[in-house]
Design a protein that fits this description.
Largest sheet: 7 strands, mixed
Number of helices: 17
Shape: elongated
Number of strands: 28
Structural class: alpha+beta
Strand content: 15-25%
Distance between the termini: 127 Å
Length: 882
């Protein structure tokens, strides 16, 4: 760069100017090279520093920033400063002269003086131009002999360039040898705050930063090396927080680190080659089921709405054919889950086939769903497995068990009713029925059917009564039932009575209870039943009388003892035994009184038992009531007081004597009651002969009526009269056989009547009964009845029927004779005052009428209750049809 002085200035010599120009070029070139080399050194060194640090550890962003700023500062800061100092600061000749003066002080000063002279203004007075020019020539001449380059500052550009070149070679080598590491370091150097991971020669396939592990359980962490990993160390190290470091060897392509159970969160640090990897570990409880519900869809025939059940024991029972949908609520949201294959958990028969089920859970956050699954005939269990959102597995021991149960038949019971029951047609049986089913009852009630009747009588139709209740979810029906034969027009015969129920299982039909045989009795049969009950009651009363007399004998023995002897231990034991025995007799008398009361009610209801018999029964009952409620308990009380330990000998003696006196009265009263009962029983027995004869006559008339109906049915076309036995229609043959069977039974009854009449006459000496017995024997009725049976058996039905008609009339005649005789006897024995009625008889007759009225009202009310049941049943059936 040349300096053009003003016109009046003297210019330095050209040689000197060129020499200074050359010096400036050399200075600028050297300093520019130094600044470039320094900038490159800074950048390359900072890059290599990060490259090197990344091989050791994960250089943080702030450190990379500091290194980047430090390296770039030589370019951004030092280079401009260097250029400003040596280029901009040495562009003038004076600045160059000063720099030269540092090497050549004398020359430098003179050069500086010459350069200053060229800038001065000339005038004649101060300086001559010729002298100034001469001075410049002298300095220029001296400068020619000097090499100004030696005045340049110590050269650094070569060293710095070599250093930059070396660093460049190192960087290039790094890129060539490890291009991935170089590019990674360059990106991390260029972007200090980026999330670019440092490159390591040991690479993991899928590195993780977070891992949830089972709480308190030993766990494993597997690190698999990537296929692109440049190094594959054989040994790896890991440590959980400050716990001792563990090491493991490479197996295949994977390191498996085993850690003990942890309960606190922590960081696991891994060292594998140049890899430094950290994983945050958080111990968590395994996912578990907190709630289990199942929706049960029963088979369509059951008509039961879907039920949702909370399972507390992991087991559900469902009828075969049901569809089950399970819902699980877990402690955490699930990521995946499976169920099955299902396993047999019960007994399996050889011909059965089990289809296992399994699949994937339907997941909705913390909720999982399975189903619907259909139940078959084999119980099974369903195992489950799942993994939560953190990758923890669970459910390995969780199973749900399904018990496939059959729709068992319902059961029906009758309660409060004996297996056999005998009643009059107008009586009402009150009892309860109980029906139960495992799922639902459709209907319940009672059903009856005739078990056959005497020929000639109307056979009862099969009937039923349905009780309220029933429904798809009605598992139990308990209902009171009232049944009266008269309400359904049922006459004397045997009925099979059963409770029934139905469930909703298709084509199963009705299920019945154990049958009850109801004997619907005629008045005559009822009287005979009462007679047999009366016989048992009298027999028990006789036993009680003997027992009471024995107790009286023992009490009299105790009475003979001295007062002091009564106080002995042995006497106390005897008194205690007597008191206990008397208590038992009181209880027996109470039972006999109740039996006699029931017998009295039955006799009053019968209506065919004469008034005198009822009166004697009432007198006996009254005596038994007094004995059970007052007399015998007083004897027991006295015996108990006599046995008191606190008694004085005199008090004990008095109590025993009083007990003996009262017991004597009791014995006499029992004898009186027994006598009254025997009198009533004799009349009862006598009256039964009339009833039995009437019954036999009725049975013979029934046989005649059945034969007459049979003749009318054939209308003479296929008449059974005169036909051979093999030619008779099977249905007609069956009726003939039934008539013959009934004839045999009637003949047996007549033989028993004759025998009983003989025994009764022998006991009582009543001539009226002997007369009837003689008439029956003289008529040879037993042979005649057997002849009728033989004719019926040979199909001589017409002649057999005619003879049966005659014997029926004869039996009715004998019943009328015996009845008239008994009426005469009542007139002579009624009140003991000639034939007039005493006030006592009138009172009894009034009481008897009242009792019969009450019984009739009770029967009407009971039959009304039965009819109400029928009405309710009819209404329910009509509603179901709608």
């Amino acid at each position: 760069m040349s300096v053009i002085p003003p016109d009046n200035h003297t210019v330095i010599p050209e040689s000197l100017r060129r020499q200074l120009e050359e010096f400036r070029k050399h200075l600028w070139r050297r300093k520019v090279m130094e600044s470039v080399a320094a900038g490159l050194i800074g950048l390359l060194f900072s890059f290599l520093l990060i490259f090197g640090l990344d091989r050791i550890w994960q250089t943080p962003g702030w450190a990379r920033l500091v290194i980047l700023i430090g390296g770039a500062s030589l370019f951004v800061g030092f280079a401009p400063y260097w250029l400003h100092r040596w280029v901009w600061g040495h562009r003038r000749e004076g600045q160059l002269a000063r720099l030269i003066a540092k090497k050549f002080p004398g020359l430098g000063d003179r050069l500086l003086g010459v350069i200053e002279l060229q800038d001065q203004q000339e005038n004649d007075d101060t300086l001559s131009p010729r002298l100034r020019a001469a001075a410049m020539e002298v300095v220029a001449s001296e400068a020619k002999g000097r090499d100004f380059d030696t005045a340049l500052p110590a050269p650094k550009h070569m060293k710095w360039a070599l250093a930059a070149l070396f660093l460049m070679i190192v960087v290039t080598t790094a890129f060539v040898v490890t291009p991935k590491a170089g590019m990674n370091a360059f990106e991390r150097w260029l972007k200090p705050f980026s999330e670019v991971e440092r490159y390591t020669f040991t690479q993991l396939e899928k590195p993780i930063r977070y891992l949830a592990v089972p709480f308190g359980e030993a766990f494993e962490i597997s690190l698999k090396l990537s296929k692109d990993s440049e190094q594959k160390p054989t040994l790896g190290y890991a440590s959980f927080e400050s716990q001792p470091e563990i090491k493991t060897y490479l197996g295949g392509n994977t390191f498996v680190f085993k850690f003990p159970g942890q309960q606190e969160d922590g960081i696991v640090t891994f060292r594998i080659g140049d890899l430094r990897h950290k994983i945050k570990v958080e111990p968590k409880q395994r996912p578990s089921v907190t709630e289990t519900r199942v929706t049960v869809k029963s088979p369509d025939y059951m008509m039961i709405p879907d039920r949702k059940i909370d399972l507390t024991i992991g087991e559900v029972s469902a009828v075969e054919g049901s569809e089950l949908t399970f819902e699980l609520v877990t402690s955490r949201a699930l990521a995946a889950g499976t169920y099955g294959p299902s396993e047999i958990s019960g007994e399996m028969f050889q011909n059965q086939v089990f289809d296992s089920v399994g699949g994937v859970l339907e997941l909705f956050g913390r909720n999982a769903k399975v189903g619907p699954l259909k139940t078959a005939t084999i119980p099974f269990s369903i195992p489950f497995k799942w993994t939560d959102e953190f990758g923890l597995s669970g459910g390995q021991d969780f199973k749900l068990r399904v018990d496939a149960v059959k729709d068992a038949p319902p059961v029906a019971y009758t309660q409060g009713l004996d297996r056999q029951k005998a009643i009059l047609p107008e009586e009402v049986i009150d009892f309860d029925i109980l029906c139960e089913d495992d799922f639902g009852l459709k209907v319940a009630g009672i059903e009856w059917e005739s078990m056959g009747s005497v020929p000639g009588e109307k056979t009862a139709e099969t009937g039923e009564i349905k009780v309220p209740g029933g429904g798809p979810e009605e598992r139990r029906i308990a209902s009171p039932v009232a049944f009266s034969p008269a309400a359904f027009g049922i006459g004397p015969q045997r009925l099979l009575l059963r409770a029934f129920t139905e469930d909703y299982y298709p084509e199963r039909g009705r299920v019945y209870s154990d049958p009850v045989i109801v004997y619907v009795l005629s008045r005559e049969e009822h009287a005979q039943l009462l007679k047999s009950q009366f016989d048992r009651t009298i027999s028990e009363l006789e036993d009680l009388a003997r027992s009471e007399m024995n107790l009286l004998d023992e009490n009299q023995r105790l009475e003979r003892l001295d007062p002091e002897e009564l106080q002995s231990d042995e006497s106390k034991k005897r008194l205690d035994a007597q008191e206990q025995a008397e208590r038992e007799n009181v209880e027996k008398m109470e039972d006999l009184k109740e039996s006699m009361e029931e017998l009295m009610k039955g006799a009053t209801r019968n209506g065919d038992i004469d008034k005198e018999t009822l009166k004697k029964m009432a007198e006996s009952l009254k005596s038994m009531q007094e004995l059970a409620e007052k007399d015998m308990p007083e004897v027991q009380s006295e015996l108990k007081e006599a046995g008191e330990a606190s008694n004085t000998p005199e008090k004990t003696k008095q109590d025993v004597e009083k007990a003996v006196e009262e017991q004597k009265e009791v014995v006499e009263k029992i004898k009186k009651a027994l006598e009254q009962a025997n009198d009533a029983n004799k009349r009862f027995e006598a009256s039964t002969f009339v009833a039995r004869l009437k019954k036999a006559a009725s049975e013979e008339s029934g046989i005649v009526a059945s034969l007459t109906a049979l003749f009318s049915k054939t209308n003479g076309v296929d008449s059974i009269i005169g036909a051979r036995q093999g030619e008779v229609d099977p249905a007609d043959q069956r009726e003939l056989v039934e008539a013959g069977r009934q004839q045999m039974l009637t003949a047996a009854d007549v033989r028993w009547i004759q025998e009983d009449l003989g025994h009764y006459h022998a006991r009582t000496g009543d001539d009226a009964f002997k007369e009837i017995m003689d008439l029956m024997r003289g008529s040879k009725i037993d042979i005649g009845l057997e002849t009728v049976r033989t004719k019926l058996q040979k199909n001589h039905s017409f002649t057999g029927g005619e003879e049966a008609k005659l014997w029926a009339a004869k039996l009715a005649e004998w019943a009328a004779i015996l009845g008239d005789e008994m009426d005469k006897g009542d007139g002579g024995q009624g009140g003991g005052s000639g034939g007039g009625s005493s006030p006592e008889d009138e009172d009894f007759e009034f009481m008897l009428r009242v009792m019969k009225m009450i019984q009739k009202e009770q029967d009407v009310r009971s039959r009304t209750r039965v009819l109400e049941q029928l009405k309710r049943d009819a209404s329910s059936s009509a509603q179901l049809k709608r």
